[in-house]
Design brief:
Layout: H1 3-7, E1 10-11, E2 17-21, H2 35-50, E3 54-61, E4 70-80, E5 84-93, E6 96-106, E7 146-151, E8 167-173, H3 181-187, H4 191-199, E9 205-207, E10 209-214, E11 222-233, E12 236-245, E13 250-260
Antiparallel strand pairs: 1-2, 2-4, 3-6, 3-10, 4-5, 5-6, 7-8, 8-11, 9-13, 10-13, 11-12, 12-13
Helix pairs in contact: 2-3
Length: about 270
């Protein structure tokens, strides 16, 4: 399936309008839409309207779309050139704006290419333990993802001791979902995971933004979500995510800032 089927995203009334229902398997454990799914919906909508691939997209998260609510997205093409389009998508529940996404879309032939980042050396997904849900049998986006811990600790192993390098990594597979910018948008929303890993405990956090930069789309079953937390101060954490295929191809990068809440011990 493609990412629109994964999200349940469908064209709605009028050109450039799409809608989706916030279901259990698209939400966080807090029963609101997983931020990566919101960005993915905007990315997929803009690609359909512009008929061009996304190069970068940045989301500003303004409020929450709760379980059972309908999210409507309106796409506006602001500039359409010969090789690139600049577009904006706004997502809302009724009159409440949930997120705004700006993006550039396009592609062109160029007699030059390269990759300068290097994938970290980690065990393969088959050699890494699975990551259990935080609340046992919870229904959330995590029930649709196959997640293995490559660098980091499970919930029960977060003992309060921080990781000094701010690094963690997960192998993540979205069964039966084709590789696309929208699929990578879902997988790029892992800086909050990295913040807890870096601090050595469960510190809930809410994403304020998410920027996806697509480098090279290739088929990939497992994606290494390579999380690098840069810093945390005055209650806000910042970090980056690199998304790798098993072959070491850099598919995309993402960056986020998050509001970090008090540590939870339960």
């Amino acid at each position: 399936m493609d990412v629109t089927e994964f999200l349940g995203l469908e064209p709605s009334d009028g050109h450039g309008r799409y809608s989706m229902l916030v279901t259990e398997d698209l939400m966080t454990g807090g029963q609101f839409l997983f931020g990566g799914c919101g960005l993915a919906a905007a990315v997929a909508s803009m690609e359909q309207v512009c008929d061009r691939p996304v190069v970068w997209a940045t989301a500003q998260y303004l409020s929450f779309a709760m379980l059972g609510e309908q999210l409507d997205l309106d796409v506006t093409v602001v500039v359409e050139g010969r090789q690139t389009s600049q577009a904006r998508a706004t997502a809302h529940v009724g009159d409440r704006e949930v997120l705004t996404v700006n993006a550039a879309l396009g592609s062109r032939m160029l007699d030059a290419s390269g990759q300068w980042q290097v994938m970290p050396q980690v065990p393969g997904p088959q050699d890494c333990p699975g990551r259990a849900p935080r609340f046992g049998q919870e229904r959330s986006i995590m029930t649709r993802l196959d997640v293995r811990i490559a660098v980091g600790r499970g919930w029960d192993d977060l003992d309060g001791n921080p990781r000094l390098d701010g690094r963690s990594a997960l192998w993540v597979r979205m069964p039966d979902v084709e590789m696309s910018a929208g699929a990578l948008a879902v997988l790029g929303d892992y800086v909050p995971f990295g913040i807890s890993q870096s601090l050595g405990g469960w510190w809930p956090s809410n994403s304020l933004d998410n920027t996806l930069r697509v480098v090279r789309l290739e088929p990939a079953d497992w994606v290494l979500v390579d999380v690098r937390v840069d810093g945390l101060w005055d209650g806000f954490g910042h970090g980056s995510v690199y998304l790798w295929s098993e072959a070491g191809v850099l598919l995309a990068s993402a960056s986020q800032s998050a509001l970090v809440r008090n540590r939870r011990l339960d």
